[in-house]
Every structure is written in C-alpha cells, then in structure tokens.
Specification:
155 residues; Arc Repressor Mutant, subunit A; two-stranded antiparallel sheet; 7 helices
Length: 155
C-alpha cells in the first residue's frame, strides 16, 4: 500500500506554499517551477484544497495562494483527503466485498492498518513538518524555524 501520487504532490505543493508563503501569497507558477509539477495539475489540486478551506487565493498583481488556516491546524490527512485520496489499505475500499463479493480473510488486518495510517497522518501538521531539520537545512540563510512569527517553536 502507498499514498497515491496525487496525495504526495498535494502535500508537497502545500508544504511549498507554507515554506514560501511566510512573506506573502505564492503563485502556482512558482510552486510548479520549484517542485517540477505541472501547472495544470497544481490548479486542479489547489481547486480541491480551496474547496476544503485549506488554501485561499488572491487575484491580481501580487496575488497567489496562502494557507487558509494556521499551519498547526492543517494535518497531512486533511490535505490528502481534500484531493479525494482516501487512506485505505483494503482492496474493497471498506465495502467488505474483497473476495468475490464476500469479506476476505484478512479484511480486518487491512482495515486496521488503514485506521492507523489515517491516525498517523492526522497527527502530523504542516507546522510540525516545517520544524523538521531537513526542511530548515533548505534555508541556511535564516536562523529561525519555518513557523510564522509568534507561533510556538519559532526562534
């Protein structure tokens, strides 16, 4: 089992927005260039994330996207679910018809794994991802964490 490309790209794109959005709105063209993702694909992902109130857009010169809520209130699971990617390890998407219309012998195992994966991703926020040393190494010219001013954990 793995998280789909759509889910991984959405998390990558919103993290780019978080990292680069501290100074103001970020354009999808900039995210596309930095992350090597298709602009049209980003437009689709951001439309879905906007409908789930994860991001908000500003039109016009100087416009772009920013987070709609504080980074510590947006979980990785929120992002994946917003782009219609359920976290599900079962073959039947939870319908219990995995073995020729019947429940398979290992359904409970895969269902429990799905729940644990959902809980794991739900417990990780964008702010927590921003505190990872690997992300802060990408910005060596700063002596602070990626958290916005006044946020807990910012030096």
């Amino acid at each position: 089992m793995r998280v789909s490309t759509k889910g991984r790209y959405a998390v990558t794109a919103i993290m780019d927005l978080y990292v680069h959005g501290l100074e103001g709105p970020v354009t999808l063209a900039d995210i596309s260039e930095r992350q090597h993702l298709s602009l049209s694909y980003l437009e689709q992902l951001f439309a879905r994330m906007r409908r789930h109130d994860l991001v908000q857009g500003t039109r016009g010169p100087g416009g772009g996207y920013r987070l709609a809520r504080p980074a510590d209130s947006i979980s990785v699971a929120d992002v994946i679910i917003a782009v219609d990617e359920p976290v599900d390890a079962t073959q039947c998407q939870g319908r219990e018809d995995c073995d020729a219309g019947e429940r398979c012998l290992t359904h409970d195992l895969w269902s429990e794994l799905s729940g644990q994966l959902q809980d794991f991703l739900d417990d990780i926020t964008l702010a927590e991802l921003g505190e990872q040393p690997s992300l802060n190494r990408l910005f060596p010219d700063t002596d602070h964490h990626l958290s916005p001013p006044g946020a807990p954990g910012r030096a």
